[in-house]
């Protein structure tokens, strides 16, 4: 991963197109990295720009000009406060990095500088913070979007730990998985053993198959950051709840998008049951068509059965946890695996287009 480096310097001294501020939800000037950035950029101008935005959800990011900094932009990323890992902290930290990278690319940046988000006063354990931050950056680069990523730290111990994580836990492993996702599992169908890929969370090995995986695409004149956002938007719009549809578009938090969609006004189960798989198919086709690296990774799954594992989801997933043996037996599934089947159909279509 030559696009990622970790150096010992102040983030405000980086010569990058954008730097990331470890922000709070209210976007007010704080201490540490945040305070240093506000001071260097010009407190009054930067605070006024932040006040105009008003708020940023944990796990997301917003962008302002860099004002007096070398960097053209400041991206304000809100990482989670560590509470033992019980409140989706890894997912939220991953989201803060991914949204920062998306904003940088959307605004024409070719380089970005990060602090180690959440590892200061927010209390996130240092090694875990490195793992999740570097994982998000590696995943972003695997989508084919190009940007030079620099982490700026001031502590020798944190620098050494970051380089250790980058070298030992992600670079070689991620490069190998990018070439070929070969760790296939199996599924028994009518007594026959079939190759299978089971997936769940977006940050896991086959997480790029998840609806929650950050993968931007445009459709119907609108920009979407994931297939989950598109599906929930269409769900709300289908029943005339355009206020909720707009609320789905207004957040990049997939959990919030799902919650809004579940409470869509005027919802009719039979209507949504009849159209949801086609909605998902359209979203998946756009996701993989508009992100070439993801398209190739999907095609590289060859003829393996694709199965989403989630115990509580009896519609999109197979209704079985990722670590349960019942995932291997299709007769033991408690869900429909609609997402998996839609992915397989999209894969077949893309493979056909590739062969023309």
CATH architecture grouping of the largest domain = 3-Layer(aba) Sandwich
The CATH topology annotation of the largest domain reads as Leucine Aminopeptidase, subunit E, domain 1
Q: Helix and strand succession? A: EEHHEEHEHEHEEEEHHHHHEH
Into which percentage range does the β-strand content fall? 5-15%
Proportion of helical residues: 40-55%
Distance between the termini: 33 Å
Radius of gyration, taken over Cα atoms and rounded to an integer in Å: 21 Å
Q: How many separate structural domains? A: 2
Mean pLDDT over the full residue set: 91
| Structure classification | alpha/beta
Largest sheet geometry = 6 strands, mixed
Shape: globular
Number of DSSP-assigned strands: 11
The CATH C-level name of the largest domain is Alpha Beta
Low-confidence stretches: 173-182
The tally of helices reads 11
Strands in their spatial order, largest beta sheet: 1-6-5-2-4-3
CATH level 4 superfamily of the largest domain: Leucine Aminopeptidase, subunit E, domain 1
């Amino acid at each position: 991963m030559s696009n990622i480096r970790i150096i010992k310097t102040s983030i405000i001294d980086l010569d990058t197109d954008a730097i990331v501020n470890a922000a709070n939800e209210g976007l007010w000037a704080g201490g540490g990295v945040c305070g240093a950035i506000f001071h260097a950029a010009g407190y009054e101008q930067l605070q006024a720009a932040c006040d105009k935005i008003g708020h940023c959800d944990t796990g997301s990011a917003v962008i302002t000009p860099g004002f007096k900094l070398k960097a053209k932009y400041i991206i304000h990323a809100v990482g989670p406060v560590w509470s033992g890992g019980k409140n989706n902290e890894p997912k939220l930290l991953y989201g803060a990095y991914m949204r920062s990278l998306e904003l940088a690319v959307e605004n024409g940046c070719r380089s970005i500088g990060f602090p180690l988000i959440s590892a200061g006063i927010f209390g996130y354990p240092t090694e875990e913070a490195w793992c999740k931050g570097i994982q998000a950056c590696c995943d972003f680069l695997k989508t084919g979007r190009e940007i030079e990523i620099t982490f700026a730290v001031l502590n020798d111990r944190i620098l050494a730990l970051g380089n250790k994580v980058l070298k030992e836990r992600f670079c070689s492993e991620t490069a190998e998985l990018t070439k070929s996702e070969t760790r296939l599992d199996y599924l028994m169908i009518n007594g026959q053993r079939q190759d299978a890929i089971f997936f769940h969370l977006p940050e896991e090995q086959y997480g790029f198959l998840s609806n929650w995986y950050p993968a931007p695409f445009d459709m119907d004149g609108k920009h979407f950051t994931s297939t989950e956002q598109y599906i929930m938007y269409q769900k709300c719009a289908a029943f005339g709840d355009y206020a909720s549809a707009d609320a789905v578009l207004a957040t990049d938090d997939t959990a919030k998008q799902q919650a809004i969609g579940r409470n869509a006004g005027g919802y009719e189960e039979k209507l949504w049951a009849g159209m949801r798989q086609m909605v998902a198919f359209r979203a998946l086709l756009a996701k993989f068509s508009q992100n070439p690296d993801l398209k190739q990774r999907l095609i590289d799954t060859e003829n393996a059965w694709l199965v989403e594992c989630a115990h509580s989801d009896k519609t999109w997933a197979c209704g079985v946890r990722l670590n349960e043996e019942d995932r291997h037996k299709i007769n033991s599934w408690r869900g429909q695996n609609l997402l998996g089947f839609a992915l397989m159909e999209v894969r077949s279509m893309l493979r056909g287009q590739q062969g023309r």
